[in-house]
Amino acid sequence: QVQLVPSGGGLVQAGGSLRLSCAASGSGFNAMRWYRQAPGKQREFVAYISSDGVTNYADSVKGRFNISRDNAKNTVSLQMNSLKPEDTAVYYCNAEVWRFGIRRDYWGQGTQVTVSS
């Protein structure tokens, strides 16, 4: 059974930094992503990293956030710098697994990030 366990998050002042990590049990993960959901809003894409390290970011975080992964440890991290109050949300890690031509997505339980002004 695949499980994603997040760590990090918390409360920080605007302009500060936080680092989120997500440890995945199991193996064979393809792309890994971070999403976030602010109160009253839909979940939105934040960052993506492929199995070989290709990255992509939402425009709102480009240049401030950095996604990385350690394939040996099955972890994905999100370094968040220059945080803004609008970055406040619950952040979710996501891992994509392909088995027999079928994609399945797994989600972490979410971790709160609060940025005060």
In short:
With 117 residues, the chain is mainly beta. It has strands at residues 4-8, 10-13, 18-24, 29-37, 44-49, 55-57, 65-70, 75-80, 89-99, 102-107, 111-116.
Report on the architecture of this protein.
The chain has no helices and eleven strands. The mean pLDDT is 95. The strands form two sheets. Strands 2, 4, 5, 6, 9, 10 and 11 form a seven-stranded mixed beta sheet that branches. The protein is an all-beta fold.
| Largest sheet geometry | 7 strands, mixed
Quote the average pLDDT: 95
- The shape is globular
Number of helices: 0
Give the C-alpha Rg.
14 Å
Distance between the termini: 40 Å
Class inferred from helices and paired strands: mainly beta
Count every beta strand, where a strand is a DSSP E run of 2 or more residues: 11
Helix and strand run: EEEEEEEEEEE
Content of β-strand: over 45%
Low-confidence stretches: none
Helix residue percentage? under 10%
What's the layout of helices and strands?
Blueprint: E1 4-8, E2 10-13, E3 18-24, E4 29-37, E5 44-49, E6 55-57, E7 65-70, E8 75-80, E9 89-99, E10 102-107, E11 111-116
Parallel strand pairs: 2-11
Antiparallel strand pairs: 1-3, 3-8, 4-5, 4-9, 5-6, 7-8, 9-10, 9-11
